Amino acid sequence: MHPLAVIREQLSPLFQEYVEDPTPFLEMVRPAQDTKFGDFQANFAMPLAKKLGKNPRELADEFVEKLQLEGICESVNVAGPGFINFKFNSEWLISRLGEMQQDERLSIPKAEKPETIIVDYSAPNVAKPMHVGHLRSTVIGNTICRILNFLGHQVYGDNHLGDWGTQFGMIIFGYKNFLNEESFKQASVQELARLYKLVNQLSEYHQLVAKVPELKSKIEATAQQLTDLEVKIDPKDKQQRKALGKLKNDLASLKENLLSAEEKIAVVNGSPELAAQANAHPDIARLAREETAKLHKGDVENLKLWNQFLPLCIAAIEEVYERLDVKFDMILGESYFQPFLGNVVSDLERKGLAQESQGAICVFHEGNEAPFIVQKTDGAYTYATTDLATIKYRVEELKADSILYVVDARQGEHFKLLFETADKWGFDKIDLRHISFGTVLGDDKKPFKTRSGDTVGLESLIDESIQRARQIVDAGDDSKPNPELDNATRQEVAELVGIGAIKYADLRHNRESDYVFNWTKMLATTGDTATYIQYAYARIGGIFREVGADRSELRSDTATVVFTHEAERALGLQLIRFAETIESVVSDYRPNILTAYLFETANSFTAFYGHCHVKNEQDPAIKLSRLVLCDLTARVFQQGLELLGIQTTDKM
Ligand code: ARG
Questions:
Q1: What is residue 39's DSSP assignment?
Q2: Cα 646 from Cα 504, distance rounded (Å)
Q3: How far is the CA of 407 from the centre of ligand 1 (A)?
Q4: Tell me: the pLDDT tens digits for 145-194?
Q5: Whole-model pTM?
Q6: Is residue 407 within 6 Å of ligand 1 at its C-beta?
Q7: CATH classification for the domain delimited by 116-165+308-441, as one of 3.40.190.10, 3.30.70.100, 3.40.50.620, 3.10.50.40
Q8: Using a 6 Å cutoff on CB, does residue 158 contact ligand 1?
Q9: What does the alpha-carbon distance between residue 333 and residue 399 come to, in Å, rounded to a whole number?
Q10: What is its EC number (predicted)?
């Protein structure tokens, strides 16, 4: 058991006489901020004493008296208003390190009750190339799969592709009207992507042209309201000041919308070819939608085209997944579930859950104005219907105990309604969870775009990262490449550094926050980056090459750790905390807990390596102990990064 679990296990029954559920109090046992006082600190005595109307210090003393940590903790003290400080016995820590050395799993236990867990992630809408918006779901979802697999669960990583949506209508329309046959023969996917972009651009053009006068009159009206209010405002009136602020904001965002609309319109008008195409197809948006509708109704020609396009689109995204080292257990896109949708709706109706409202079939939920629409007025099924059919399939065919949806925070409302509907529909035993995440932003704090305003393609992002990593590898430690590496190896290293940097930069942020994409920060060789940890790993590889030690011997019980310096003990304790880290990552699916742990471990290692000789240590027992610590550190880095989908190398 890891140190924190030992403390919690001891504390847990002691709460019995005070509270029903000790969980929130047990969560108040944490690693100590200041290691002067101990290794862990418990802060629950203050809130608990308040609740019970007791003296917190006395309460803390009561707990400490009853604890039985002889042989485990060297000291347990109460400090200040009632903090309990735990300091572990070094011998006890050393035995835990001994167990870890000999355990392939580095003391991370398998789940007591393995479950069948579906991780629904990545899920791009195919037919358009993958872009930076797909990065987060792909990287976070893949990490969750890797960790759950490692814990012994039955995991199905499922790529729920958007392969049946309106984008296919756009491509089909493009194919029928704007195809360049030569390009299609040579590079079909690129040609399809061009067609998608073109049809999208022309549809948007007409919508924007129609919207501009409306925007202008709204701007005029808002500006007028603003002046009126400014004239009569009473500066002491809070309500009025608030209204003024709101008007100013509204005006600014309306102006921004107008500007962006005008820019997009100008792009089309500025190109004779685009302008001619736009003029020739004023109704393009409706016609593209009709192509989608025809496809959905089983139109032979459109189905044939769809069947021809889909494999091409999938092959294109698979190239990206391969570069990212992401493998799915299944790819069951939206199209797979189409045959089941009619039954979903009729079943919901039969059970009295769905009813007609303004021509659409809807499920209403109390406290929610917006209904969950499962069939539209024109008879079409929706994203929601597909998701319901998918839940049924996953429960009945895959025997899922839980489904994790790694999807953008903007779909929060959809999942809330989906989960409520599924629950009422009879799928109330399955644990459904939206693992939501924020947006990748550019320097301007807006969604990350290229200079021309396009979304950033994932392929080109990967290329650039590898290129930049190559410069770092070529620069080596002192402006020349590591002489141990030939050209081909340097390229391999650049690839794992470049890919690692992108993944790590994404994973290290709290998934719910937005983050700013920054090349310099994410490829820094010191700091909270994959590169830093990969370098630390390679440095340990270098130590072993120089010493010529037999690493398998370091994993047997003939090699023991001794603490002769505070830095050795600190590193040892940090290493033992690997199991605690993984446990807390999965408790709320937060990979940033693992990156933070690896970063701290790299810092502990750097401190240890700065204070303690390894190669030149004269005392053979101390040298052996330090080599064991090096070996364990390297294994924690390798295993930790692998769980994040990031590779390591012995030489950099
Ligand atoms: N294709 C969807 C999108 O791009 C994401 C799908 C997420 N998964 C799901 N089961 N709804 O927005």
A1: S
A2: 8
A3: 7
A4: 999 999 999 999 999 999 998 899 999 999 999 999 999 999 998 899 99
A5: 0.91
A6: yes
A7: 3.40.50.620
A8: no
A9: 19
A10: 6.1.1.19
CA dist 161 and 121 (Å) reads 9
Q: With a threshold of 0.95, tell me whether the complex ipTM lies above it.
A: yes
> What does pLDDT average to in each consecutive run of 10 residues of the chain (652 residues)?
93 90 92 90 93 92 93 94 95 96 96 97 89 94 98 98 92 96 93 94 96 96 93 89 92 93 95 96 96 93 96 93 97 95 96 94 90 92 96 98 97 96 97 97 87 82 96 83 88 97 97 94 94 95 91 89 96 97 96 98 96 94 96 98 97 90
Distance in Å, CA 384 to ligand 1 centroid: 10
- Answer whether 160 contacts ligand 1 (Cβ < 6 A): yes
CATH 2.40.37.10, applies to 458-643: no
pLDDT in tens, 74-102: 999 999 999 999 999 999 999 999 999 99
Cβ of 84 below 6 Å from ligand 1: no
CB 84 within 8 A of CB 557: no
Tell me the pairing of strands 73-79 and 83-88.
antiparallel
Residues 6+ apart with CB under 8 A from 402: 115, 116, 117, 118, 430, 431, 432, 433
What's the gap in Å between 389 CA and the centre of ligand 1? 14
The pLDDT tens digits for 519-547 are 999 999 999 999 999 999 999 999 999 99
Q: Which atom of ligand 1 is nearest to the CA of 387?
A: 10
Q: How far is the CA of 111 from the centre of ligand 1 (A)?
A: 29
Ligand 1 within 6 A of CB of 415:
no
Residue 131 beta carbon below 6 angstroms from any ligand 1 atom: no
Mind spelling out the 3-state secondary structure of 505-544?
Answer: HHHCCCCCCCEECCHHHHCCCCCCCHHHHHHHHHHHHHHH
Residue written as token pair 């391999």: 492
Question: Which class in CATH covers the domain with range 3-88?
Answer: alpha beta
